[in-house]
Amino acid sequence: MTDSLNRVIHERARLGIMTKLMAEGESGFTALKKSLSLSDGNLNAHLKVLMKNEYILMRKEFVADKPRTTYRISEKGRLAFGEYIDSLEKFLKSVS
Amino acid sequence: MTDSLNRVIHERARLGIMTKLMAEGESGFTALKKSLSLSDGNLNAHLKVLMKNEYILMRKEFVADKPRTTYRISEKGRLAFGEYIDSLEKFLKSVS
Under an 8 Å CB criterion, which residues of B touch A? Predict the structure, then answer.
């Protein structure tokens, strides 16, 4: 019934991260944090899960000697997100 | 973005429990366990969260001297489930 919902993406904070990155292409740590109202530790933990699953990619670069970290969806993440949305649509059809 | 998704119901196993109880009216522990492929401990923990939030009700009765426990959705749970489904539909519209 809900088995087909990818549990990595279904978790609410991670769904928020994936949705934001899908919409905006890429985002920095602070922007994600503000947008999702998460603590540093919480956001970090969810980003790690998404990176471990290769759904998002992290880039570190230096802008005027200051480090800047940005995150974006990988191709694998884009596919997984699409499949998750399909599963969610099927679930909604089944309950309505 | 995903803030409006009720976190008590959104969790995948609890969403499965709520959906099954919405569809079937009531269900016993073993039927829920089989249907959702959860361990006893895991199912118990999720049922407790749903009971604490007063989304489901537990009934214990004796059938031929054997205890039987059944669970069903409360009125509060029915309303919360409906709101959750509405939020999910809005979320899906926003990403598609």
Answer: 1-3, 5, 7, 10, 12-13, 15-16, 19-20, 22-23, 35-37, 85, 88-89, 91-92, 95-96
Whether residue B49 lies inside any domain: the answer is yes
User: pTM for the complete prediction?
Assistant: 0.90
Amino acid letter, residue B88: L
Q: Identify the domain containing residue A75 by its residue range.
A: 7-90
Note whether residue B26 is domain-resident: yes
Torsion of CA A81, A85, A86, A90, to 10 degrees: 150
Tell me the average pLDDT of chain A. Answer: 94
| A2 to B16: CB separation less than 8 angstroms, yes or no | yes
What is the count of structural domains for chain A? 1
Question: What is the domain-level CATH number for residue B57?
Answer: 1.10.10.10
Phi and psi at A25, nearest 5°, equal 85, -60
Residue A81 banded pLDDT, cuts 50, 70, 90? very high
Nearest to B10 among A3, A12, A35 (CB): A12
Q: Is residue B55 in a domain?
A: yes
Q: Is residue B68 part of a domain?
A: yes
